[in-house]
Amino acid sequence: QVRLVESGGGLVQAGGSLRLSCAASGRTFSRNAMGWFRQAPGKEREIVAAINWSGDNPFYADSVKGRFTISRDNAKNTVYLQMNSLKPDDTAVYYCAARKVTIWSTGSDYDYWGRGTQVTVSS
Question: Is the pLDDT of residue 28 over 70?
Fold first, then answer.
């Protein structure tokens, strides 16, 4: 079992930055692929970014490419999402998720999920 707790959300003006953190506890974290998802009101949940256990070859949704960066610190059992140049369309609840395998997926086939953290971007 892996427990995931997100933090770092909040209210920011358009053009600003936030860094989300996801702290993992439980079974070994370093071998899990991790992903960040988001869900805006009235919309389906979508993947934002994902990272393999090794930290290489990350995935980014087209809507955040060049603005968001996913990273992980296996020694701290933490994955991060650095969000720059935020737009009002980035407003959503952001969720951290983990897979039991080492390679990321762009689908919702993640085994563990956090409860989410709210990100609100004002215009």
Answer: no
d(CA 69, CA 91): 17
Cβ atoms of 10 and 18 closer than 8 Å: yes
Which pLDDT band, with edges at 50, 70 and 90, does 31 fall under?
confident
Cα–Cα dist 56/21, whole Å: 18
The structure tokens 């998802």 sit at 37
Pairing state between β 18-26 and 2-7: antiparallel
- Starting at the edge strand found earlier in the chain, the sheet holding 78-83 runs 2-7, 18-26, 78-83, 68-73
- Return d(Cα 63, Cα 66) in angstroms, integer: 9
Which stretch of DSSP H or E encloses residue 63? none
* CA distance linking residue 74 with residue 30, whole number of Å: 5
The pLDDT, as a whole number, for residue 43 is 96
